[in-house]
Amino acid sequence: MQAQTAVVIGATGLIGEQLVQELLQDNTFSKVVLLVRRPLQLSHHKLEIRLVDFNNLSDLSARLGTGQAVFCCVGTTRNQVQGDKDAYRKIDYDIPVHTAQLACRQGFTQFLVVSAVGASTASGNFYLQLKGSMEEDVRAFPIRSIHIFRPSLLLGTRKEFRLAERIAQAILPAVSFLMPGSLRRYRAIHSKLVAKAMLVAARNAEPGTHTYEYDEIRYLAR
């Protein structure tokens, strides 16, 4: 099998951390590059960590380099950006879209990105509208395979404490059976399943644009 390179953005997040471990244990990619803002204490013979200024497109382009697949798992919260919508946009829209643009230009054949269930440019919710705009603009790039993952509430342990999320994590799994039919897409899902699904999608490398919600994510990760 030809050696392949995967680039991960958002490696310190809930899904990103799981994804890195999946990639390091899998034989599909012989090299795993992490683009991070700050030094990361992680070591593996397949791993390369590159510091990058995501606001500088020339720097992002240089650090991105070349390879086969880009996994974009970045995301923030209103609390983290203190309600600053411009800061929110820089992370949840600018980074994925700019990276997809550069990945297309630099010959990557796959772009896999985490969005959110309910994402739509027509949404009245700022967060979902932003995610919808990101999806729409990523889809416009002529990348051979684009994979968009739309999880609802993520289960798992974050480094930072989020009270509302902890409460929801405790309650929603117990009431998932009350969310049948079209409501299934809003069921909570473990971050590890999303990470596994992303890796499987990259291994399959099916051409075209694909969107995955609760059932599709679980099916891929089975």
Describe this protein's structure.
Strand 1, helix 1 and strand 2 form a beta-alpha-beta unit. The protein is α/β, with parallel strands linked by helices and 222 residues long. It is 39% helix and 18% strand. The model has no long low-confidence stretch (mean pLDDT 90). Strands 3-2-1-4-5-6-9 form a seven-stranded parallel beta sheet, with helices on both faces. Strands 7-8 form a two-stranded parallel ribbon. Helix 1 crosses helix 6 and helix 6 crosses helix 7. The chain has seven helices and nine strands; from the N terminus they run βαββαβαβαββαβαβα. It is globular, with a radius of gyration of 17 Å.
Key words describing this protein structure:
222 residues; alpha/beta; 39% helix
Secondary-structure map:
Elements: E1 5-9, H1 14-25, E2 31-36, E3 47-51, H2 57-64, E4 69-72, H3 85-105, E5 110-114, H4 126-139, E6 145-149, E7 154-155, H5 163-171, E8 189-190, H6 191-204, E9 208-212, H7 214-221
Parallel strand pairs: 1-2, 1-4, 2-3, 4-5, 5-6, 6-9, 7-8
Class inferred from helices and paired strands: alpha/beta
Shape: globular
- Number of DSSP helical runs: 7
* Largest sheet data: 7 strands, parallel
End-to-end Cα distance, whole Å, is 24 Å
Percent of residues in β-strands: 15-25%
The amount of helix comes to 25-40%
In spatial order, strands of the major sheet run 3-2-1-4-5-6-9
Count of beta strands: 9
Order of helices and strands: EHEEHEHEHEEHEHEH
